[in-house]
Amino acid sequence: MSKRQLLLLSSSNYHGHEYLQFAKDWITDFLKKNNVTKVLFIPYASTKPDSYTEYTEKVAKPLKEFGFEVEGIHESKDPVQAVNNSSCIFIGGGNTFHLLKTLYDKRLVEAIRTRVLDNGVPYIGSSAGTNCATVSIHTTNDMPIVLPPTFYALQLLDFNINPHYLDPIPDDKHRGETRAERINEFHHINSAPVLGLREGSALLVDGNNATLIGHTKAILFQRNEDPQEFEPNSDLSFLVSSS
Active-site residue among 12, 127, 136, 201? Predict the structure, then answer.
């Protein structure tokens, strides 16, 4: 039985809400359920190392209001040891390529996998942090501003997620590829399912159980199949049962 505990947000922002406030109940319930009082935040999706403290403080402000402490991994002399000592890992948004490269550069990929999959340490991801929780970052929306050693990520799940999923806008004059078309291109070569998480939604994973939570539907793309829409509170355990 898998020990993993994941809360994967499409984004830290949602229209009409302050930063992370739309997810207050989800985060609070998730952390309390796992007896967490302190969160290790990983700000490496930011492309400016001198902004890591500012980014961590931005995350710490709402989490402190929710009743939790936050420490930034960049403050530790040994990031691997910080992960090994953590009671919860939170990776925020930014550039997915920069995040993954930095995780590999600092030898954190296996450390995080071990803590989450073997030790049951809860993991929160948002945007890029959600991308990196999956099989690979092949379905990120970000520009490849740096080159990680591989596109394969933390592999806490056996499928991919596309955060910030956007539907085509009727009568829009834009004639470029839609998000759905890009995911279809991915499936010409890759077989992993892709879950499109719209803003205001998240995937909650408890071992081999998964539930779509939030304010919006999600859309699932599978190779050679028509896309499927899922309402909030849908059981998506079929995606993780074999992971």
Answer: 127
pLDDT at 72: 98
- Beta carbons of 176 and 127 less than 8 angstroms apart: no
This prediction has a pTM of 0.95
Cα–Cα nearest to 133, from 203, 40, 214, 30: 203
Active site residue 127: yes
Strand partners, 71: 40
- Chain length of the chain: 243
Please tell me which residue in 10, 46, 138, 142 is annotated as part of the active site: 142
Per the annotation, the verdict on 187 as an active-site residue is no
**Alpha-carbon distance values, 141 to 15, 19, 49, 127 (Å):** 19, 21, 22, 10
Q: Is 142 assigned a catalytic role?
A: yes
Tens-digit pLDDT profile for residues 44-60: 999 998 999 999 999 99
pLDDT tens digits, one per residue of 161-193? 999 999 877 766 666 689 999 999 999 999 999
The mean predicted confidence, pLDDT, of the chain is 95
* Predicted local confidence at residue 2, as pLDDT: 76
Q: Which is catalytic among the residues 74, 98, 138, 164?
A: 164
Q: How far apart are the C-alpha atoms of 74 and 44, rounded to whole Å?
A: 9
> pLDDT tens digits for 61-90?
999 999 999 999 999 999 999 999 999 999
Q: How far is CA 216 from CA 105, 198, 199, 201, 211, in A?
A: 36, 6, 7, 6, 13
How many of the other CB atoms lie within 10 Å of CB of 114? 13
Are 26 and 232 spatial neighbours (Cβ–Cβ below 8 Å)? no
Any idea which residue has 């998480």 for tokens? 197
CA-based nearest residue to 115, from 34, 47, 57: 34
Q: How far apart are CA 171 and CA 159, in angstroms?
A: 32
